[in-house]
Amino acid sequence: MRAVATGNQGGQTIACVIVCPIPYSLFPIPSFLAGAR
Fold first, then answer.
1. Within the chain, what is the greatest distance between any pair of CA atoms?
2. What is the C-alpha to C-alpha distance for residues 6 and 26, in angstroms, rounded to an integer?
3. Whole-structure pTM over 0.70, yes or no?
4. What are the structural domain ranges in the chain?
């Protein structure tokens, strides 16, 4: 959920808030990469 810090796209932030928590519990690394985008 680092998209909030980077502020690349508002939609990306919303999508991350919804999507990130789910894969984060399963795959922390892919979630981190997705959040880094």
1. 25
2. 23
3. no
4. 3-36
Distance of CA 21 to the CA centre of its chain: 8
Give, in order, the Cα–Cα distances in Å from 14 to each of 22, 32.
14, 15
Give 5-32 pLDDT, tens digit per residue: 555 566 667 777 766 666 666 666 665 6
Give residue 17's pLDDT.
Answer: 73
Report whether 16 contacts 3 (CB < 8 A).
yes
Q: At what angle do helices 10-19 and 28-36 cross, to 10 degrees?
A: 170
Six token digits for residue 29:
């690394």
Tokens found for residue 3: 């998209």
Helix, strand or coil, per DSSP, at residue 10 = helix
